[in-house]
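Issue 218. Parser rejects a valid record. Input:
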Amino acid sequence: MDKILVMRGGAIGDFLLTLPVLAALKRRHPNSRIEILGYPQIASLAVAGGLAEQVRSVESPTLAGFFVADANLDPVWCEYFSQIDLFISYLHDPQRLLEINIKRASDGQYLCGPHHPDERLGLHATDVLLKPLETIGIHDADPVPKLQVPISIECRLPHADWIALHPGSGSEQKNWHPERWFHLVERLLETTQWRILMIGGEAEASRLATLCRRFSSERITPAINLPLALLAQMLSQCSLFIGHDSGISHLAAALGIHGMVLWGPTNPNIWKPRNKRFDKLFSETGLGGLSVDYVYTRLLEKWRSIHEKNAPFASFS
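Output the parser choked on:
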C-alpha cells in the first residue's frame, strides 16, 4: 500500500488510545505513507513520534460535503482520496455518509471502526480500536500505546528530580478537590527537593495560575496550554506523573514514565492507561475518599520503588 489514511476525532485520550493502530500499521507496512484525518492540535503527536507523516484537519470547511447525502463533493478532496489505498475510519458516521461519499471518489479499501467503545463488552478501548485491523490480517498488534518524541534543546528541563502534576481533566466529576491538590503540593515542597511541572489546558489556566501564585516557588514550572508535542517533550523528562482520568495521563503513560492516576467514576477496565508503570488510586467512596495523606504516602513509596529498582524512566516494563 502506498498510502493509508486513519480518520480519528475525539479528545486527547481518544486519539492516544488509537496509537496502537498506527504502530501496527507502521510495523506491517513500513514503506507506506500513513496520514491522519483528525484534529491537528492532537494528532500532531503521532507525527512527532514518527507514527504518521501528515495530519489533515477534519474540520476543513471544504470537507463538510462528505458528511451530506448526494452532496457536490469538493474536487480537491476527491483527488486526495483517490490516492488512498486503505481508509480506516473511527469517525462518528452513523448513516455511513462519509463512507459512501469517499467511495464515490476512491477505490481504496475502507474499514470502519467504532468512534467510541461499547462499554457493555468490557474490553479495553485499545483492544476495540485494534479489532478492524484483523480484516487486513493484523492479529498480533501490541495494545499498549507507546510514544517516543525527540527532545529539542529549548524543551530541556534543568537537571533535577522532576515530578509532573496535572490537577485537571475534561470533567469535574473526575477531579480531586483543588484544596487537596494545594495541600499535596505544599507537602511536597516542604519535604522533598523535587521540581514540579504543573500541567493544565486552556480550561484550567485560571485554576493553575491561582495555585502557582499561592506558592510563589521557583521549583514550580507552569506548563499551561502548551502545544501537545512540546508538552510531550517536557513530560518525558519527568521521573513521575500524577493526575486524573484524562488525556494528559494517557500521554504520560504512552511516554513510558512512571505514574499514578486518581481514578474517578469511569470504568478502568476500558479506560485505564495500559502502561504497567502506572498505578490506579481508587476509593469505594469516590475521589473524596482519597486523602492527602494517602496520596502523599503512595507518591513517596512510588518514588522509592523507582529509584531502588534503578528503572529507566522512559522505557516500558
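Fixed in the parser; the record now loads. Residues 91 and 239 are 35 Å apart (CA to CA).
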